[in-house]
Specification:
Structural class of chain B: mainly alpha
Largest interface: A-B, 58 and 60 residues
Number of helices of chain A: 21
Number of helices of chain B: 16
Oligomer: heterodimer
Shape of chain B: globular
Largest sheet of chain B: 2 strands, parallel
Distance between the termini of chain A: 31 Å
Strand content of chain B: 5-15%
Order of helices and strands of chain B: HEHEHHHHEEHHHEEHHEHHHHEEH
Structural class of chain A: mainly beta
Chain lengths: 1213, 455
């Protein structure tokens, strides 16, 4: 600020010479622009009293300055031909006065920080880029100097002043940031200034032919005719730094982009809000290079959410989430997508080392919107989204599934024993025949002669004529609806700012009676107590309620099964009943419970209700010590409570089946060991944590060439997790009473053999009742330092030491710091680049260093678990402690060395981007590794495994065409990651392992020499003449599976199951108040398995009916069918025939928006913005394999994606 | 100066409070800290039942008529005395691992008990003594599996096993000690432990006692071929603990035998890791029994007419024909002490003592109606009878292999042969065979490449 305003005393002197100066300028600058600057500091009033006839404009300005103390900037050229003013007013507000004065003139004005800038009206702006005619001028002077002044983002600065030192000559820039001066002495120094930016002195001697330009901010171009063109970039003044989002926010520190040496990706509000996001993560998908978010592909049972691959095996695998400067342990659902100011991803060591042992997976820094000084602003946002029901007619199912299933049962049961039926209805053996489906039961009766062939055929024909997909859809599904309402208001003055927001989201899911809703409340305020002392206070309250009831998966219901009879009474289904209806009738007749599962009953009798309440409080004090130093002290407290209530009434199949399973015969009737009544299980999870941080910040420019931005801090952090479960049997939700249960006899010790229903689900004591507790504490010290020289070169260094409870004692590892070093080179600032105009900026970054990860599954000392010794002790047994984990003084943090080299560029007009290459090596990963048995065991959790991730990322943002009313922007983000397991102990796969170890299960997820998530497949060789599946052995000869088994030689490595390439391409076209946005996603470089066509499947796929039936069929079909080899289906599914390229594209979002901000009605009503958006998400997908299977569909059977249609209203007032 | 002191003090206070802050106890798992913790640690099932069954498979009394021609399974490789039992470097080194895992438990006690909270100093000394005894017992097995039989002339040069005393898996691995060093450790550790051991372990025979200490010394001196000392300690064991062999005539079947934890004639109880594994005795061994021997009746199936002609038809069932808790004790027992005294007597020519002790055991095993006390005045006959009694009494509790080793050195061990299903010899073990000393498992050498391998 100080520098932008001139010394008033000097200015006063200049005022005395005003008339003289004006004369000179009129003479010398016929077509040139000129300006002069007026300052006065005496007045305080903001109203004007003025009276005069035909007063020249500049005199009016003098009057304004006198009365208000405001400074008026104007360009002489502008007012040269302006008519004099005739006006008489008394105590009019300045605003009003200026309007009156300038009425009818082609002039406009704006007021900024006690400065009134007079400019040409935008509508009449003419091109000022036109060349200025050559003028004959005196030697020792530049005949003309033209140039543009822009801010750090290349935004043109209008009204910036350009003055010649020690003279009164000067001008100000027009709306395009353009200025021109004529005949300026070559020894002169230009003084450039603009409110909010750092003033700049430009010695013109720098640009004389042969001279060296030492200024980074200025690019000069000396033309043949001696005309000089200057491209000037002003830096933001220190005060306005924090209002600008271009700086890199690491959560601890803000680093100017040209000083940053780390690999970061950033997304701004505009990019984020181009689409309507109802949850936080989906809005980031494919928008940040290096971040892989995919809910359709899973690894180790979790959706993909990773930054630059996986860098741990047993540690935390998700990126660290930092909200408003502090890490959060709360769920990502708790982040309101309407609150996003910016999202920054810290990917490499230089960027993330400051987060220490949690940074191996990368860090996502979320900054929420903040209040700005001014009157209260209100924002109201509302969205409604619809997702239509499944369309089962487009599924890849056999359209005659019922007939196919029945025909297959006929084939499978053609030689069934006549005894089968007798066993089914036997009171002692019947319970073991629960696997017989409806057609099989009819066939068993036919075989036993209970019914005739004709009756059986008739019954099967009736079954075969049914198809329940429509019923299922009608009875269990409806259109899913998501509604969100978001309201916030913000404002404040210099000493206090506030921002309050409320969000309510309600989801009604596709499956009926399954819904959830969420309330988020947030209040953020900033208090500036004194110039030096300020406080930021943030509180968040979040509440989620979810209800889930059991709706059966359609894939578990045979096509011929019905949910209701003709009268509308509920009917049972096969899956979930665990016994045949016939045996069920027998036990029911004897007084036990009905064991069958009726989906239409169950959904009313069983529910899971989840209730979560989170609280988050952040407090930050800041004290400015001066001389570039300030001290921050703050902390965060988080608290989360979740309760899940699972209630099954006594009418539910769940409870009936428990009762039957544990029933014992008694002298008369039964003993119901599980009492009659409901079943309630309550699970609770409580987590709380705090972080307290003290930090010293130093940010200063030292002289002309050096600048230093350093932090030094310490942090204390604690996270507590508690879980628990308790259960009530024979429970009534009305009376709230329960009945006693003898768990010792039922669930303790030896295996309980059920008398009547051994297939029914069993209870487990440790699942019903348990407690869990974990406490983690950390003490950390860190420092980060960024040094820049002449804005050309910057060097950064980070160091962090983390200490935790129950961790490494060996001094060798205990204080081992994680560190990083980085360097940046702003090539565009180099002299040799000054003439390359198409390159606006170019920066090379290199960084190397270490990040850590926490994996606390072992300790330096022995961990024991309590149990009861059962060697011959009568109950209750004596307590024992067993070894859980070995003492390991060599235990250490997992660490990831990350090397990154990147290029940031800004080229032509509006194309910016960056390219990064990285190589990450994660070592000392905790894995169950083999150890020398002499040490006390053969394997232990030791820091033994090692992984490598390499990749390339490209991020491109292009504004192809930008005019006032039109903008076409394209964003392209491409990430590629390949991983390799360098070292890992795999106890399941050994050199002699059977081939099935490679293809089944997840044993190869971390197999040495292969990528993480490797897949292996058999080589499919068709069926043989008796219907058995064949594979090719290593020499290419077809053979039966496992005969003999050649281990790894029988399988091929197919690829990884984790996408290695992903990209997002977004286009946004703005026309006036309208914009159109579209996003295309791609995931590739991975393999997927597709299900095999199997006639015995509950819902057979399209070609399943063409199964092998007799010799010769093997020539026309690959579908194996022999009931005797039913288990082979699993192995056929892992052959290369059913392992295909997983690459797929999706048309993610199509969004259209119109802002009615110019509508007079709405304006009158006080709206400053009234935006209506419409969006279709998840519109179309294509899979690049022979099955056209895209994982975006959710399952192979589903051949399409279900779009979601959303309408949103965003308003401000 | 003052500033420096202040800064220094601040740092100290900070680091102390920091350590306090980080020093919190976890829940759900236990970090051994109190005397009670260590006491319960010694109750662990893992140090009660760990002795590998494979030791039985090397003995001359097991048969395997269904062995495949080129065996690959570890138990079959053990059976044919293959040099290595697994070629898989990633595999688990059987036998070796079992003992060192138990040693780990005892080392954990020895490392931490001094700093344990609660309990009296006697409690601490007792637990420490128990751990020393338990560890010595394990080293006694190891030195006799992986080292040469003790020969006073060469023992200080013969390599055996590493003497591991730490429980830190990050610590440096010691080199292989000599046979003599290991025995010295065993004798000094057990001797040091005995005064602090409890006088009675009848509440839990798995736990150490004074008698248990003497019994381990007795076994140690027996393997050192110092029979006088062996007999002396065997007698001390009997004098300080149980001394009555359970009479099988007093029970109807093995199910009536008390669970090992309270078994009256167990001195120091141990069981095998795979306690339920049945074994197939050789026909020759079966034929060595008196048909009135109750051990046959209680533990062996399909006795038929006692002619034992079909290999594999008779099996040894460790939990007894009538299943119960009568698993054999792999640790020390009254019978073992008595037979040690008997052997010492037979060797030294004190035949009355030998015959008396033999009688004490035999009359509790043979049906009373058919029992004839053994008598001979031939020193060698008595000696052989004692050996036979040992073979029968300790048939499948891991002791036979060690007797074979002793006898082989003395030249008293005939060649042992393995036959396939058709009676062809597939492996043989002459008394001079290097296979009497197990090779260091290659899974262990992989980590300790500097160690010399046994021949």
């Amino acid at each position: 600020m100080q520098k932008t305003v001139y010394d008033s005393r000097r200015t006063y002197w200049r005022r005395l010479n005003l008339t003289q100066t004006l004369l000179v300028m009129k003479l010398t600058a016929i077509l040139l622009t000129a300006a002069f600057f007026q300052l006065h500091a005496s007045g305080v009033s903001q109203t004007i009293t003025f009276s005069g006839k035909a007063v020249p404009l500049e005199k009016v300005f003098v009057a304004i300055e006198k009365q208000t103390g405001f400074v008026v900037f104007f360009n002489y050229e502008l007012i040269d031909h302006a008519l004099p003013v005739t006006l008489s007013v008394k105590n009019v507000p300045l605003d009003r006065f200026l309007k009156d004065v300038l009425k009818g003139l082609p002039l406009d004005y704006f007021i900024k920080d006690k400065t009134i800038v007079i400019s040409r009206k935008a509508a009449v702006v003419e091109s000022t880029d036109r060349p200025i005619p050559y003028l004959d001028i005196s030697p020792g002077a530049f005949p003309q100097i033209t140039g543009t002044i822009a801010g750090p983002n290349k935004e043109p600065l209008s009204g910036a002043s350009v003055r010649i030192r020690s003279s009164l000559t000067g001008t100000s820039t027009n709306a395009s940031g353009y200025f021109a001066l004529a005949n300026v002495a070559d020894k002169a120094v230009l003084l450039i200034s603009s409110v909010g930016y750092q003033a700049l002195e430009v010695p013109l001697s720098n640009f004389l032919r042969g001279a060296k330009n030492s200024l980074k901010e200025v690019k000069g171009d000396l033309k043949e005719n001696g005309a000089l063109y200057l491209d000037i970039t002003l830096r933001l003044s220190a005060d306005s730094m924090h209002d600008v989002e271009v700086s890199v926010n690491t959560g601890y520190q803000r680093i100017k982009p040209e000083q940053s040496t780390g690999a970061v990706s950033q997304i701004s509000t505009k990019q984020y809000e181009s689409r309507i996001s109802t949850d936080f993560l989906s809005g980031l998908q494919n928008k940040l290079a290096g971040v892989l978010i995919n809910n359709n592909v899973q690894f180790e049972g979790n959706s993909l959410f990773q930054i630059r691959g996986l860098s741990t095996i047993n540690g935390n695998k998700t990126p660290l989430i930092v909200v408003d400067g502090y890490p959060t342990e709360l769920s990502l659902d708790m982040i309101d997508p309407n609150e996003i100011q910016s999202v920054t991803v810290l990917k490499d060591a230089a960027a993330a080392t400051v987060y220490g042992v949690r940074a191996s997976n990368g860090v996502i820094v979320i900054e929420r919107k903040k209040a700005s000084v001014g009157k209260a602003k209100f924002t109201l946002r509302s969205t409604v989204g619809f997702t239509p029901k499944e369309n089962y007619s487009r599924y890849r199912w056999d359209p005659n599934g019922a007939k196919t299933s029945i025909a297959y049962d006929r084939y499978a049961y053609q030689d069934v024993s006549p005894n089968l039926w007798a066993r089914v209805i036997s009171p002692t053996r019947g319970m073991y025949y629960g696997y017989l489906d409806a057609p099989a039961l009819i066939l068993a009766q036919q075989a036993a002669g209970v019914i005739t062939k004709d009756t059986a055929d008739a019954q099967l024909a009736t079954l075969g004529s049914k198809d329940n997909t429509k019923d299922y859809s009608r009875l269990f599904l409806h259109t899913a609806v998501t509604q969100t309402y978001n309201m916030n208001f913000s404002g404040g003055n210099q000493s206090a700012l506030y921002y309050f927001t409320a969000n309510y989201t309600t989801n009604s899911l596709e499956k009926i009676k399954n819904d959830n809703n969420r309330i988020l409340l947030s209040g953020r305020s900033t208090f500036n107590f004194t110039k030096r002392f300020s406080l930021e206070l943030t509180t968040d309250y979040q509440e989620v309620r979810a209800k889930a009831v059991p709706i059966p998966d359609i894939n578990t219901i045979y096509p011929y099964e019905q949910f209701q009879d003709a009268a509308g009474n509920p009917l049972p289904v096969y899956n979930g009943s665990y016994m045949t209806p016939y045996y069920n009738a027998i036990i029911k007749a004897n007084g036990l419970k009905d064991n069958m599962y009726y989906p239409l009953v169950e959904m009313n009798e069983v529910s899971d209700k989840t209730h979560t309440v989170n609280n988050r409080i952040t407090t930050n004090f800041k004290y400015v010590l001066g001389r570039g130093l300030d001290l921050t002290f703050g902390g965060i407290y988080e608290n989360s409570n979740t309760e899940i209530k699972h209630l099954a009434t006594e009418n539910s199949a769940e409870v009936r089946q428990y009762i039957n399973r544990y029933a014992r015969p008694a002298a008369t009737g039964y003993i119901f060991n599980i009492p009659e009544g409901g079943f309630l299980q309550v699970k609770t999870a409580h987590s709380s944590g705090y972080t307290i941080r003290t930090q010293l910040n130093y940010n200063k420019k030292l002289g002309e060439d050096h600048s230093l931005n350093a932090i030094l801090g310490a942090e204390v952090r604690e996270v507590t997790d508690e879980t628990g479960s308790t259960a009530y049997l024979g429970y009534s939700d009305n009376t709230l009473i329960q009945q006693p249960v003898n768990y010792q006899d039922l669930l303790g010790g030896s295996y309980y053999n059920s008398t009547y229903a051994s297939n029914n689900p069993s209870l487990s004591f440790s699942n019903l009742f348990n407690r869990g507790y974990a406490l983690n504490r950390y003490v950390s010290g860190y420092s980060n330092l960024v040094y820049a020289f002449r804005r050309k070169y910057s060097v950064s260094g980070s160091i962090r030491i983390d200490q935790s409870n129950l961790f490494g004692v060996d001094p060798k590892y205990r204080y081992k710091p994680l560190w990083s070093l980085g360097a940046g080179w702003n090539i565009d600032k180099e002299k040799f680049m000054q003439n390359v105009y198409w390159i606006k900026s170019l920066k090379l970054r290199v960084a190397d260093g270490f990040n850590g990860n926490v994996a606390k599954k072992a300790l330096p000392q022995v961990i024991a678990t309590a149990d009861f010794n059962t060697y011959g002790y009568p109950s209750p047994s004596i307590p024992e402690l067993n070894l859980y984990s070995y003492a390991n003084s060599a235990l250490r943090w997992e660490q990831t060395n990350s090397f990154n080299i990147g290029l940031d560029f800004s080229i032509f007009r509006g194309i910016t981007g960056n390219i990064d290459y990285y190589n990450k090596k994660s070592t000392d990963l905790l894995a169950t590794g083999q150890i020398d048995a002499t040490r006390g065991g053969s394997s232990a959790m030791v820091n033994s495994a090692s992984l490598n991730n390499k990749g390339v990322e490209l991020n491109l943002q292009a504004d192809w065409i930008t005019t006032r009313r039109f903008n076409w922007n394209t964003g392209l983000v491409i990430s590629r990651n390949t991983s390799k397991v360098l070292k890992s102990y795999n106890s399941v796969i050994t050199s002699t392992s059977n081939s099935s170890r490679y293809v089944l299960g997840s044993y190869v997820s971390y197999l040495k020499g292969y990528p993480v998530g490797a897949l292996f497949s058999y080589r499919w060789a068709g069926l043989d003449s008796v219907g058995y599946p064949l594979i090719y052995d290593a020499s290419g000869k077809a053979k039966h599976m496992f005969t003999p088994d050649a281990g790894i030689k029988d399988v091929d490595y197919s690829g990884t199951s984790i996408p290695s390439v992903n990209f997002g391409l977004s286009n946004r076209i703005d026309v006036g108040n309208f914009y159109f946005y579209c996003m295309i996603n791609f995931y590739g470089g991975f393999k997927v398995r597709v299900p095999t066509p199997n006639p015995s499947a509950v819902r057979p796929l399209k070609n399943a009916k063409d199964y092998w039936k007799q010799a010769g069929d093997e020539k026309i079909t690959d579908v194996a069918s022999l009931p005797a080899i039913a288990s082979y289906d699993t192995y056929i599914g892992v052959t290369d025939k059913y392992t295909v390229n997983g690459d797929y594209f999706t048309l993610g979002d199509i969004t259209a928006s119109y802002n009615f901000r110019d509508n007079k009605m709405l304006k009158k009503a006080g709206f400053t913005s009234f935006e209506l958006k419409m969006q279709a998400s998840n519109v179309y997908t294509v899979g690049l394999n022979k099955y056209n299977y895209s994982m975006a569909t959710g399952s192979y059977a589903k051949s399409y994606v279900t779009p979601t249609y959303t309408i949103a209203l965003f308003t401000n007032f | 100066m003052n500033l420096r002191i202040t800064v220094l003090m601040c740092c100290t206070v900070l680091s102390i409070s920091c350590n306090k802050y980080l020093d919190v106890k976890p829940k759900g798992v236990t970090l051994l800290s109190s005397v009670t913790d260590y006491d319960q640690w010694l109750n662990s099932t893992n140090i009660e039942g760990y002795i590998p069954r494979e030791i039985n498979l090397m003995a001359d009394n097991v048969d395997n008529p269904v062995i495949t021609t080129a065996p690959t399974a570890a138990k079959d490789l053990v059976y044919i005395w293959n040099a290595q039992f697994s070629q898989d470097v990633n595999g688990v080194p059987i036998i070796w691992k079992n003992f060192y895992q138990t040693i780990y438990y005892f080392n954990t006690v020895l490392q931490g008990i001094d700093n344990a909270t609660g309990g009296t100093s006697q409690d601490k000394q007792r637990l420490k003594a128990e751990a020393l005894l338990g560890r010595s017992f394990d080293y006694l097995y190891l030195v006799n599996l992986y080292g040469k039989h003790f020969d006073s002339a060469t023992a200080s040069g013969d390599l055996s096993i590493p003497f591991v005393t730490t429980n830190d898996i990050g610590a440096t691995m010691p080199q292989r000690s000599t046979v003599k060093q290991i025995y010295d450790h065993i004798i000094s550790d057990v001797t040091a432990a005995i005064p602090y051991l409890s006088t009675d372990n009848s509440k839990n025979r798995y736990r150490g006692s004074m008698a248990a200490g003497y019994s381990v010394l007795a076994r140690t001196y027996l393997y050192l071929s110092d029979y006088t000392e062996a007999a002396k300690y065997a007698q001390l064991a009997l004098d300080n603990g149980p001394n009555k062999v359970l009479d099988y005539n007093s029970i109807s079947d093995a199910s009536a035998i008390s669970t090992l934890i309270f078994r009256p004639d167990a001195i120091y109880a141990r069981i095998s890791l795979t306690i339920a594994d049945a074994e197939i005795p050789t026909l020759e061994f079966l034929k060595s029994f008196d048909t009135a021997d109750l051990r046959l009746k209680y533990y062996y199936t399909n006795l038929g007419d006692y002619s034992f002609t079909v290999r594999g038809s008779t099996q040894y069932i460790p939990y007894g024909i009538i299943a119960g808790s009568g698993y054999p004790n792999w640790g020390t027992s009254v019978a073992e002490m008595r037979l040690i005294i008997a052997e010492a007597g037979a060797r030294s020519g004190d035949l009355p003592t030998a015959l008396d002790q033999l009688d004490q055991v035999r009359k509790s095993r043979i049906k009373t109606a058919y029992y004839q006390p053994y008598y001979s005045n031939d020193k060698d006959s008595v000696f052989r009878k004692v050996l036979l009694e040992r073979a029968q009494e300790f048939a499948f509790n891991g002791l036979r292999w060690f007797d074979m080793r002793r006898l082989a050195v003395e030249g008293l061990m005939p060649d042992v042969k393995r036959y396939d299903g058709s009676g062809n010899v597939i492996a043989s073990l002459p008394s001079t065979s290097p296979r009497y000393i197990l090779q260091i498992p290659l899974q262990v050498l992989y980590y300790n490449s500097g160690w010399p391998q046994n021949p």
